[in-house]
Automatic annotation (TrEMBL):
Cofactor: thiamine diphosphate
Enzyme class, spelled out: oxidoreductase
Name by which UniProt lists this protein: 2-oxoisovalerate dehydrogenase subunit beta
CDD domains per UniProt: TPP_PYR_E1-PDHc-beta_like
Phylogenetic placement of the source organism: Bacteria, Bacillati, Bacillota, Bacilli, Lactobacillales
PANTHER family: PYRUVATE DEHYDROGENASE E1 COMPONENT BETA SUBUNIT, PYRUVATE DEHYDROGENASE E1 COMPONENT SUBUNIT BETA
Database matches in SUPFAM superfamilies: Thiamin diphosphate-binding fold (THDP-binding), TK C-terminal domain-like
Length: 328
């Protein structure tokens, strides 16, 4: 085992896959050279694998998606990095109209084994254009997979699994977690399923479901509530699309009280779909209305620290919501 940050784990996973398979290439804005991208996620890859396998692109997100599609079709495993998930929006047509539908429209003759890396989320003073959660834009598009790890172990194992997938994967990486989390990560080759949610804390009183930064809040709150005898189950969604319905529904049935947390706006978030699934599959197992805790329904979080804090779901809010649900 080696201690790694969430960011280092992603870098290591990509490096291992580029070593294992010469068809793995990575590109994006400032990805090549010595910089290794705006956050340093690809640092050292150009020096090790050369600038034909780790290279820069112009500031043109539609082109990044188009290059990935082309490389995927001729046998490469392409990794396209978008500096910020917000900037994926100019590439929506390429991703939804071409990437997602390639296997279907060619009866399986052509595939696009692509990973689009998308740093997302707030808490780093990014403000407008640098803090959004865009995963709901791509949600509900058959042909795509959307995943996000919430700890360093999963970060390495899931990026490796995503690269090996024959289906296109959008790999969301929470920016606040990049250097916040550090944990033991195996040095050997391993992958983590990109199809499954994970119960990260067993409990019997309430079920909390989330992903990304808010999941860390839920884990801390669960430990705090345990001192008062409240036993919370915490579930990491991990596979945002398709959702692992079985694990989510079973966790809801287990306690009968469900809190869904997201950093995104409340209206139209991924959690809205999870609430619908639990209502369909487990309504008569519930002992309380499904609760949601989310960001406000405003266009974006502000750059000013006070406005950023006003937008983001924080630890105190999560603790309070979990306690209220337990007492319902």
């Amino acid at each position: 085992m080696v201690q790694m940050t969430y960011l280092e784990a992603i870098n290591k996973g990509i490096e291992e896959e580029m070593t294992r398979d010469k068809k793995v290439v990575i590109f994006g804005e400032d990805v090549g050279g010595v910089k290794g991208g705006v956050f340093g996620a690809t640092q050292g890859l150009a020096a090790k694998f050369g600038d034909e396998r780790c290279f820069n692109t112009p500031l043109t997100e539609g082109e990044i998606a188009g290059i990935a599609n082309g490389l995927g079709l001729i046998g490469y495993r392409a990794i396209g990095e978008f500096q910020f998930a917000d900037y994926m929006l100019p590439a929506v047509n390429q991703i939804l109209s071409e990437t997602a539908k390639m296997r279907y429209r060619t009866k399986g003759d052509w595939t696009t084994p692509i990973v689009f890396r998308a740093p997302y989320g707030g808490g780093v003073r990014g403000g407008f254009y640098h803090s959004q959660s865009t995963e709901k834009v791509f949600f509900g598009q058959p042909g795509l997979r959307i995943v996000t790890p919430s700890n360093p172990y999963d970060a390495k194992g899931m990026i490796k699994a995503a690269i090996r997938s024959d289906d296109p994967v959008i790999f969301y990486e929470h920016k606040r977690l990049y250097r916040l989390l550090k944990a033991d990560v195996p040095e050997e080759d391993y992958v983590v399923s990109i199809d499954k949610a994970q119960v990260v804390r067993e409990g019997s009183d309430i079920t909390v479901i989330g992903y990304g930064m808010v999941l860390q809040h839920a884990l801390k709150a669960a430990e705090e509530l345990a001192k008062d005898g409240i036993d919370a189950e915490v579930v990491d969604v991990r596979s945002i699309y398709p959702l692992d319905k079985e694990t989510l529904v079973e966790a809801a049935k287990k306690t009968g009280k469900v809190l869904l947390i997201t950093e995104d706006n409340k209206e139209g978030s991924i959690m809205s779909e999870i609430a619908a699934i639990i209502s369909e599959e487990a309504l008569f197992d519930l002992d309380a209305p499904i609760q949601r805790l989310a960001g406000p329904d405003v266009p974006s979080m502000g750059y000013a620290l006070s406005l950023e804090r006003e937008f983001l779901v924080n630890e105190e809010q999560v603790l309070e919501a979990m306690r209220e649900l337990a007492e319902y």
